[in-house]
């Protein structure tokens, strides 16, 4: 489960506008959006101050140490049961049970989504370490809750599990449905390959998924090919056009795609061909411009081959805006545009050429060393989360940095 740890301070900023996120497709199988969102539970109602922030880390470290063995078991359970996006039933039930056992009020199938946040890559399992992200979110949430209770600080900790993360835009869907409403900040982390004990606070590319389908007319390729309209020709022409386009895009832009398998007989003119593409750019505005250029390649190929084009656009992933104040204290694309966010990437031990999205990384994500690195980062996130809630001056700085970044956009 990729876990988003969201934090709600005792009093949020007044007169804030509700967030808006336009969706171009609905992955919820025609379910209507909820008209109301249940408020997150309050664990504390009192409002006393913390006497010594320097002692909070002791509570956090103690809590994480107590949880370590259980979190390791949880990580292996999820790792050994990989599931496809929007089918993450094992992860949903396992994580919900775990959080309930630690005193959290859990809403299952939140916002009309059947499963909690979990995704694996077909064939290669948990090749992005989402089992580690899951237990980090769980551990951080429990550690912050423990510190709030220890020091009698009012506030709310919410652990959001988002389904269909990589390929399904799970967080974008939850934003659209009000899942992050009334949250003051959001924290999570992500494993990657890199030097031992290294951490990165960089951004990530904005991304848009495109599916192009070409429809033609079948015909006998030997007897009367002139009666046919070749959809596969349209797909290959589009592929070639995009390959040429790559020469004129910037070095930090990306376009990559595949042609879907075709089951037509070799002596039949193909009447259908499908393609899937991902377009990436450093910012959402640059992404929008690049997507239009890619769409023109599809449209030109359809026109040249007399095929009909059906184009489906996925929800866009925005670039990640790291809050510079939160970063100094110790992500997530669309969420980071709506509230202060921190999403550090951290290194786990991997083999050569065994980075993210490889079978080797899936194996690395199961290692004891990867778990230890995850727990170290989680302690820092828990400290940051507690400080967001308990330190008014610090939170004001976080908020000002976020508003400044928003104005610059």
Name a few traits of the molecule.
409 residues; alpha+beta; 4-stranded mixed β-sheet; 4-stranded antiparallel β-sheet; 11 strands; elongated
Word description of this protein:
- It is built from eleven helices and eleven strands.
- By secondary structure, it is an alpha+beta fold.
- A four-stranded mixed β-sheet has the order 2-1-3-10.
- Helix 1 crosses helix 10 and helix 6 packs antiparallel against helix 7.
- The chain starts with a strand and ends with a helix.
- About 12% of the residues have low confidence.
Per-chain topology:
Blueprint: E1 3-8, H1 56-79, H2 89-101, H3 130-150, E2 156-161, H4 165-168, H5 170-176, E3 185-187, E4 190-192, E5 199-200, E6 206-215, H6 231-245, E7 254-259, E8 272-281, H7 284-305, E9 308-313, H8 324-329, E10 341-342, E11 345-347, H9 359-364, H10 368-390, H11 392-408
Helix pairs in contact: 1-3, 1-10, 3-10, 6-7, 10-11
In short:
With 409 residues, this protein is α+β, with helices and mostly antiparallel strands. The chain is 39% helix and 14% strand.
